[in-house]
Amino acid sequence: MKKTNNNLTSFADHLDEQYGKAGTNAREAYEEGFEAFKLGVMIQGLRKEQGLTQEQLAEKCGTTKTYISRIENNASDIRLSTLMRIVREGLGGHLRLSVGI
């Protein structure tokens, strides 16, 4: 593991040590989980910015409070069609996707 002159480990080196190099199964699983976590945090932040409760957001987009909670807490996979409905109908936004290769 590479150390800086202050005996600090870089985040990239920490990830390599904990989950393996990029492209390994463990690292890919970590990266996928992290993206799902970020999505939940983003939805929660947007919901709170708009002053909505989970129940109010769920009503606006035709789902349940429990499902919104599960998404925000990274406890549920989310279908793209459901994510689009939450963003469009529940939050009044537009979903844009990008793919990194």
TrEMBL record:
Record-linked Pfam families: HTH_3 (PF01381)
GO CC annotations, alphabetized: cytosol
Gene3D superfamilies, A to Z: lambda repressor-like DNA-binding domains
An example molecular function term from Gene Ontology annotations: DNA binding
Transmembrane segments: none
InterPro entries per record: Cro/C1-type_HTH, Lambda_DNA-bd_dom_sf, TransReg_Diox_bact_type
Record domain HTH cro/C1-type: where: 43-86
UniProtKB keywords: DNA-binding
Name the UniProt record assigns to this protein: XRE family transcriptional regulator
